[in-house]
Amino acid sequence: MDQKLSEWLERVKEDLISAKILLTSHETVYAASVFHSHQAVEKTLKSYLFKEGYQIPKTHNLMRLLAVIIEGDTFLTENIASIQRLDNYYPRLRYPTGDKISKEDAVLCLNIAEKICLGLRAIF
Prior knowledge:
Blueprint: H1 3-25, H2 30-51, H3 62-69, H4 74-78, H5 80-94, H6 103-123
Helix pairs in contact: 1-2, 1-6, 2-3, 2-5, 2-6, 5-6
């Protein structure tokens, strides 16, 4: 496996671990857990793009990344709603919005991230 691809996938693993640790560590860091879940999916999509030789867009928007690779991929098309749901959290994670991220939000996002990361990784 290419070294750069290995690095991408290692970062995915680190983000998933971080999301899990933050989820269980303290209730005030649920947003940080969701952030790492989002990062894991973002990096998984970008690693797929890298592997396939695409130029990696400079975006954090999961739907924009997905649009580049979705054509013909059943796993991703079946999971668009989940990816969109996770992507909708991103503005709330980066900027003050007055919204509170709950434990349920963090658990949902981690579950989505694990499913997408493992499922897409199986396609590699």
